[in-house]
Amino acid sequence: MKHYDIAIIGGGASGCYLAALLSDTERKTALIESCDRLGRKLSATGNGQGNLSNILMSADKYFSSAPELVADVLCDQSVLDPFLGIFEADEKGRVYPTGRRASSLTDSLRRKIERAENIDVYLGAEVTSLAHGFVLTFNGEQISADKVVLAAGGKAQKQFGTDGKAYALAERFGHKTTKLYPSLVQLKTDTENIKTLKGLRVDCLATAIYEGKPLRSCRGDVIFTDYGVSGNAIFTLSSYVTDKIGAEINLSFLPDVGEREIASDVERKQNAGYERSEWLACTLPNQLGRAIMRRCKSDKPEDIARTVKNFRLSCKGTLGFDYAQVTRGGIEMSGVSYNLESEYERGLYFCGEILDVDGECGGYNLHWAFSSAKRVFDAIYLRR
Ligand SMILES: Cc1cc2nc3c(=O)[nH]c(=O)nc-3n(C[C@H](O)[C@H](O)[C@H](O)COP(=O)(O)OP(=O)(O)OC[C@H]3O[C@@H](n4cnc5c(N)ncnc54)[C@H](O)[C@@H]3O)c2cc1C
Asked: Please, what is the end-to-end C-alpha distance for the chain in angstroms?
């Protein structure tokens, strides 16, 4: 049986990143990936442009039962060092390679991994069993390792090899998995008032509301669909409502125009003899103006203006894991140390999305994948 110092299960964002760091060492490493290529999901990130971090980095952007540990892992400033290239941030702080190609990030890591003499890459190899010792089984083959890193991702978008089966590999050592939810995902809502809006994209200020309290507002695109709403702003808000039954989304249209201005515009149209259904014509896209006029039962300009700013939709769930970018929940953080090592099995480590950590939209999830891999590298190589 072939023996390694380190076996990494999962050749996605965090697994490849860790292997790239290990390529500069003498540690004999196995990188085992169930898909036929490394970093398939990484190559699809940011609409193919690779939004790998955010300059507005803060632990507040993450959801986890261990916020202090997350903050501690994130404070490492050198996460982008292994990527050779030039990076730029957009107006929302989202960091991209200047060539705007996510696949260039994968290539950058893969080049280091493939050139390293100390790393064996196994592709098309799903680890189906991990036994004490450690002995790993895949494709009827077995290898052993002194240390194992579970970098097998979450449950979002199984076409990238992440179907959630890997949690069981940790559970056999006593680890628990929290309840899992899809996040960064389209929302199903009541559709009665938006049936006529299918396909319309509008810029608005969207707010997630739960038990009457606003949780998070986000300015951006909202796209109306036959099941509910999609778009950048909705993806961000989905993080706040995915685990909350009875949440609502408030859409405030014309975010740069005040209610008083909208009311006086409506009044002018009323005085000019416009049909009721046209009182928001020219000010909003026609079908949206009409939907708001159908929804508002009053003819008072100030009530109509208020409806423009308070278009509520009740959430009925999400489109699910097949559409989500990330998984809420994962391996319970109480079972891992500050080095992301198992509290139950020495030598077993975790990094990336498999842990109970997920971030908002905007580069936060890849940043976590890389910084948690860096933490594991420091622990196993520099022996923190
Ligand atoms: C379409 C899309 C776009 C996204 N865009 C962004 C973005 O712009 N910015 C951002 O920050 N985040 C983005 N994300 C989220 C981000 O890609 C993930 O959070 C990140 O890839 C997680 O890294 P990971 O290494 O934990 O898991 P993954 O990258 O998912 O890698 C896990 C790997 O483990 C393999 N694996 C699983 N089980 C086994 C097993 N038993 N044996 C062997 N291999 C196994 C899988 O095949 C997979 O390749 C996006 C996600 C999606 C789906």
From this structure: 30
